[in-house]
Amino acid sequence: MSAMIEVQVTQVRQLTPVVREFSFAAVDGVLPGFSCGSHVQVLLPTAERTLRNAYSLLGDPRQNGIYRIAVRLQEASRGGSRYLHEQVKVGDRLHIGVPSNLFALHSQARHHILLAGGIGITPFMAYLAELQASGASFELHYAYRSGLTDAYADELRERLGERFHGYDAAAGQRLACAGLLRDKPLGSHLYVCGPQRLLNEIRTLAETQGWSAGRVHWEAFAAPEPGQPFSVELARSGQRLQVPGDHSLLEALEAAGVDVPNLCRGGVCGQCTTRYLSGEVEHRDHYLDEQQRGEALMPCVSRGGCSGTLLLDL
Ligand code: FES
């Protein structure tokens, strides 16, 4: 397991009925610095098992000493967000990983277009501090439902003025993605964070409108979706594992003491790439291409089929 830091919860704020913000300070020493767009893994010792969820770090990266995250309560979750919302209070101690950045700001861009859906606003809270401090050209488009998922909307509207564009689903307003991508200054970069359908729509539109892949950046931190239980065999050790429906393959491997490198735990970073030798795979990642999927899988999100055994090269 990568290095862990013990932190104490110094503040909890209920931002909306379903979004809570948590502030952490180091129990010993100083928290490492981070760049905007970074996330940390948080260990969540729920009653059933310890989950590791990834959350974006909010706020100005140049202000040391405190980390902040905002968490949306997911009704259909495996318990991580519920644990944070219902159990964690000021003074509690938690363990977190060191920050990693899979969603960095491209400082050479001539113009930055930020698109957030709901809790996808979180990485942009750090971006905005940096963009404003450097005087960069940018615009923020934020889709939310007022009174439910509109965390930070009032603050951002006031702070950003005409660079803030809000779309309130409760008022029937919708983010018109196609128009947003047209006629942007040369050298613009697009950043998207939000639900999967928003990411899919933007990526498809950007491609059809001729945006090069290097100018479109996106982040998805979805906890792995549950599925059917399946069985796995590790070819090198001969170990056999059963993966329950509400565990990811990565979690099952970790529980069995098998260390697999990982960062995002959401099928996007490529860190956990694992070769398999035989068996049926339900690929759910956003990283491997079709050819690579013939011999590798991402155990943080992908699963084996319900019949037969998946043989991993581990
Ligand atoms: S940990 Fe990032 S793709 Fe699996």
Overview of this protein structure:
The protein is an alpha/beta fold. It folds into three domains: about 5-100, Beta Barrel (Elongation Factor Tu (Ef-tu), domain 3); about 110-220, Rossmann fold, CATH 3.40.50.80; about 230-310, Beta-grasp domain (Ubiquitin-like (UB roll)), CATH 3.10.20. It is built from six helices and 19 strands. The strands form five sheets. The chain has a five-stranded parallel beta sheet with strand order 10-9-8-11-12, sandwiched between helices. A five-stranded mixed beta sheet has the order 14-13-19-15-17, covered by helices on one side. The longest helix has 13 residues, at about 120-135. The mean pLDDT is about 90. It binds FE2/S2 (inorganic) cluster. FE2/S2 (inorganic) cluster (FES) binds next to loops.
